[in-house]
Design brief:
It comes from Sesamum indicum. Belongs to the ubiquitin-activating E1 family. UBA5 subfamily. This is Ubiquitin-like modifier-activating enzyme 5. Keywords: ATP-binding, Metal-binding, Nucleotide-binding, Ubl conjugation pathway, Zinc. By secondary structure, the protein is an alpha/beta fold. It contains twelve helices and seven strands. It folds into two domains: 40 residues; 271 residues, Rossmann fold. Strands 3-2-1-4-5-6-7 form a seven-stranded mixed β-sheet, with helices on both faces. The longest helix has 30 residues. It is extended, with a radius of gyration of 36 Å. It starts with a helix and ends with a helix.
Length: 422
């Protein structure tokens, strides 16, 4: 875009110089000024090599790195090492891509075959001037302006076709971004598609590659949605238990009807996208609890959650294979988890508190000694105004208290006799 604007400005300058009429030159000058304004508005920030926690207005990562300073995340800069694939750049997928871009994700792979339409303007992210562009190209255009540090890969294809599926699988296995990474070339796949066939294709591909992924969806009436974590072999895959069937008993294959327009609310899309990306960050950066399934009902503000185990009779052969591998590896995995827990239990804390600028320290109650009770000494210049409440105060000695117990009994007897006589 910037190169095109420079070319137009150069052509206009040549035209202006060749025009003899001053009024025409003024008109061309106005056009030049408008293009210069567009050029300035299209300016991008330069790439940043390292994330900094420095709190200055010019640092785009200062507020993200504050999560590390506050102890929420151990090392936020690790986010630059991760690759996330987003399948479906629609109402949920486009917003999820923007959130991850603003968070400074290392690499985004974007998949969609559709084009931007005016009918998409009720949603977030896309703009009217992008109508006619493919959604992936429009997304790259917007996201690269927001954060040029993110590596963006655009795939304009339909993954439900044979050729599209092959390209999809090949791109997930590509390790050019991180050659040392185990497994596939991506850390997580986010499914943001709106039809059953595409979800089943993502499910098939992730089961074959043993790739962890998250599924998301919004209902046809646009007032509910869900997100779901799927770990091949460990949790139910999409073929084991489709979320819509679990939640309402409706077969998703019956939803896509010719000539029927589904409702779409940017609010619901934004909520679901936010939940999806929040779960993604917790999974990648290892903080908080990663939810296995979270629903959202906008009418009742209800957020159901559940866990779904894999179905031993799943119709997906790759899912059954991953289940067998998970069961075989379970004893070793449980033993390692127990060893880690035992090691952590024997580690004694170095101190009871962290250093702080006020030099406040915390000590064990058992180590506290009451210096006033043991010595009674006070700092110089202070005196006891009242007797100590902890010390038993003995009454002063008197003649009455020196009497023997026998005399006291005799006096009591005489007093009783006097009372009886009266």
């Amino acid at each position: 875009m910037e190169a095109e604007l420079k070319g137009l400005l150069s052509d206009l300058q040549s035209l202006k110089d060749s025009l003899p009429d001053p009024s025409h030159q003024i008109s061309v000058g106005k056009i030049q000024a408008r293009l210069e304004h567009l050029k300035l508005g299209n300016a991008q920030r330069s790439k940043i090599k390292d994330m900094s926690a420095e709190v200055v207005d010019s640092n785009p990562y200062s507020r993200l790195m504050a999560l590390q300073r506050m102890g929420i995340v151990d090392n936020y800069e690790r986010i630059r090492e991760f690759s996330v694939a987003i399948v479906g750049i629609g109402g949920v997928g486009s917003v999820a891509a923007e959130m991850l871009t603003r968070c400074g994700i290392g690499r985004l792979l974007l998949y969609d075959y559709d084009k931007v339409e005016l009918a998409n303007m009720n949603r977030l992210f896309f703009r009217p001037e992008q109508v006619g562009m493919t959604k992936t190209d429009a997304a790259v255009q917007t996201l690269s302006d927001i954060n040029p540090d993110v590596v963006l890969e655009s795939y304009t294809l339909n993954i439900t076709t044979v050729q599209g599926f092959e390209i999809f699988m090949s791109s997930l296995k590509n390790k050019s971004f991180r050659p040392d990474k185990e497994g596939t070339g991506v850390d997580l796949v986010l499914s943001c598609v709106d039809n059953y066939e595409a979800r089943m294709v993502v499910n098939q591909g992730c089961n074959e590659l043993n790739q962890t992924w998250m599924e998301s969806g919004v209902s046809e009436n646009a007032v509910s949605g869900h997100i779901q974590l799927l770990v091949p072999g460990e949790t139910a895959c999409f073929a084991c238990a489709p979320p819509l069937v679990v939640a309402s008993g409706v077969d998703e294959r019956t939803l896509k009807r010719e000539g029927v327009c589904a409702a779409s609310l940017p609010t619901t899309m934004g909520v679901v996208a936010g939940l999806l990306v929040q779960n993604t960050l917790k999974y990648l950066l290892k903080f908080g609890n990663v939810t296995p399934y979270l629903g959202y009902n906008a009418l009742k503000d209800y957020f159901p959650t559940m866990e779904m185990k894999p179905n031993p009779q799943c119709s997906n052969a790759a899912c059954l294979e991953r289940q067998k591998e998970y069961i075989l590896a379970k004893p070793a995995r449980d033993a390692a988890a127990r060893a880690k827990m035992e090691a952590e239990a024997f580690v004694e804390p170095e101190c009871l508190h962290a250093d702080n600028e006020w030099n406040i320290s915390v000590v064990d109650d058992s180590d506290v000694q009451d210096s006033s009770a043991s010595s009674g000494a006070l700092p110089e210049g202070l005196v006891h105004e009242l007797p100590s409440a902890d010390e038993f105060q003995k009454p002063p000695a008197s003649a009455e208290t020196t009497a023997t117990p026998i005399d006291d009994l005799e006096d009591l007897r005489k007093q009783l006799e006097a009372l009886n006589a009266a």
